[in-house]
Amino acid sequence: MEIAKLGKKGQVTIPRQVLKRLGLDGDVPLTVETTPDGAILLRQAVLVPVEIYSDQRIKEFEENSRIDPKLLTAARRLASAAKRK
């Protein structure tokens, strides 16, 4: 068991050996949770970039994802034939 230190400013120092075991190095974002029994849970956070799409960008997606009418008709025929079998 290792001991972590809580500083005057509320910062926690995690022992280097614990960080090595977990493969954490440098600036790593952590999530902080508390449990009903008073424990503090630290977990490595996964940061995922989020893109907020403009109306123009959504329109581009819709235009690029349209199915050729001939291909759609052929796919419907194949699906219908498969249902009859």
How would you briefly describe this protein structure?
The chain has helices spanning 16-22, 55-64, 69-84, and strands at residues 5-6, 12-13, 30-34, 40-44.
Helix content: 25-40%
Q: Which word captures the global form?
A: elongated
Structural class: alpha+beta
Mean pLDDT, to the nearest integer, reads 91
Would you tell me which CATH topology of the largest domain applies?
A: Pemi-like Protein 1, Chain: D
How does this model look, in words?
The chain has about 80 residues and is an alpha+beta fold. The chain has 2 domains: about 5-45, Pemi-like Protein 1, Chain: D (Ribbon); about 55-85. It has 3 helices and 4 strands, in the order ββαββαα. It has a two-stranded antiparallel ribbon with strand order 1-2. The chain has a two-stranded antiparallel ribbon with strand order 3-4. A hairpin with a 5-residue loop joins strand 3 (about 30-35) and strand 4 (about 40-45). The termini are far apart. The model has no long low-confidence stretch (mean pLDDT about 90).
